[in-house]
Write a structure and sequence with these properties.
globular; about 25% strand; alpha+beta; 3 helices; about 20% helix; Rossmann fold; 4-stranded mixed sheet
Length: about 130
């Protein structure tokens, strides 16, 4: 059986398995994350396919933002000036994610929509004063 890595032809990309940004060395222009973001009490966790997933893959705690907060903080020294950090998040979390990025000094913060028109990805740039 072929691995997804082989199928999508990413053999040339280095992969690391650690806790979020822990293994990264150097500075990057872009960091993209799809962390767990579902709030612990979300009723969807007990329905559909979600009930078969490990809870750690879906929810990082009460409000679903713990992983986003950690990654946003840890990404600051890893991003080049002007570097972009982007997260996938829940359709109802854009305001909270923007607030996390603002609090940490990210600039040019914006939220993008998914194919259904729902807020789904928020990004911000790190500049020298961040």
């Amino acid at each position: 059986m072929r691995s997804n890595r082989h199928i999508i032809r990413t053999e040339h990309l280095p992969f690391r398995q650690h806790s979020w940004l822990e293994p990264l060395q150097g500075r990057f222009r872009v960091i993209v994350a799809n962390p767990p973001y579902v709030a612990a009490a979300d009723p969807h966790l007990a329905a559909g396919d979600c009930r078969f997933e490990p809870s750690a893959a879906l929810t990082p705690g009460p409000d679903g933002l713990a992983a986003i907060r950690r990654i946003a903080q840890d990404a600051l020294p890893c991003l080049e000036p002007g570097g972009l950090l982007a997260f996938e998040h829940g359709y109802d979390q854009a305001t909270a994610v923007r607030a996390v990025l603002e609090e940490l000094g990210y600039e040019e913060i914006e939220t993008r929509h998914d194919l259904e028109g729902r807020d789904r990805v928020t990004c911000g740039r790190k500049f020298e004063n961040s």
